[in-house]
Design a protein that fits this description.
It is a single chain. The protein is of the alpha/beta class. InterPro entries: HAD-like_SerB, HAD-like_sf, HAD_hydro_SerB1, HAD_sf.
């Protein structure tokens, strides 16, 4: 049921993409699993520590994973991972690590067919927005590399010394929060020309789009 309703009007065809040259409007892409083949935040956490530290950290997260089976709150388990792996890291250090990660990981993470569709919307002068539940600092280097007009993502909280607290500045950017953040950026009556996503967390964003692409990107690097 969910998959059928998400598909709605289906993915934009090549003909539709070529209909207009300018002013295509706002087009939103989920990031993990849509533009990428794997979760970028998980891959970043693996990349920045050695295997032993990663395994030890994931072991300590087992109680949080078990609790998730009851509360089903993805934000809570993500915050637990942030506390385990990133707490007290400075903003400057984290931004530098995120840039380095994006440089080495992009070729193996980004889907060629997603990039092709992204470029086609760019040719039509669409406002291209990445809307992600992953931490904004981790996704930002990818967004800049793609030439995104805007990034909407989960915001990490920092203390007075600009160190990661282990919490979020606002809600996890998933589900209805994606729509709320889009409307906050573009206005309550904006039109979402197209949206692309791959999970139930993209459902609300896809529902407000004129053209919906649910799990339409399949290619691997």
């Amino acid at each position: 049921m969910a998959k059928r309703s998400l598909r709605g009007g289906g993915a934009p065809s090549n003909e539709m993409l070529d209909d207009q040259i300018e002013d295509a409007g706002v087009v939103a892409f989920d990031f993990d699993g849509t533009i990428t083949v794997r979760d970028s935040f998980t891959e970043f956490l693996k990349w920045r520590v050695d295997q032993g530290r990663y395994i030890a950290g994931m072991t300590r997260l087992v109680p949080a994973a078990i609790s998730y089976l009851a509360h089903r709150n993805r934000g809570r388990i993500k915050a637990a991972a942030v506390r385990e792996f990133l707490k007290d890291v400075t903003r400057d250090e984290l931004e530098a690590q995120a840039r380095a990660f994006a440089e080495v990981a992009a070729p193996s993470l980004l889907r060629p067919d997603a990039l092709q569709t992204w470029r086609r919307w760019r040719q039509r002068h669409a406002k291209l927005v990445i809307v992600s539940a992953s931490p904004d600092i981790i996704v930002a280097p990818f967004a800049r590399g793609l030439g995104a007009d805007a990034l909407i993502a989960t915001e990490l909280a920092f203390d007075a010394e600009d160190r990661v607290t282990g919490g979020f500045l606002g809600p996890n950017c998933r589900g209805p929060e994606k729509v709320r953040r889009l409307r906050a950026m573009f206005g309550p009556d904006f039109t979402l020309k197209a949206a692309y996503g791959d999970t139930s967390g993209d459902r609300e964003m896809l529902k407000i789009a004129d053209h919906r692409g649910y799990r339409v990107f399949k290619e691997r690097p």
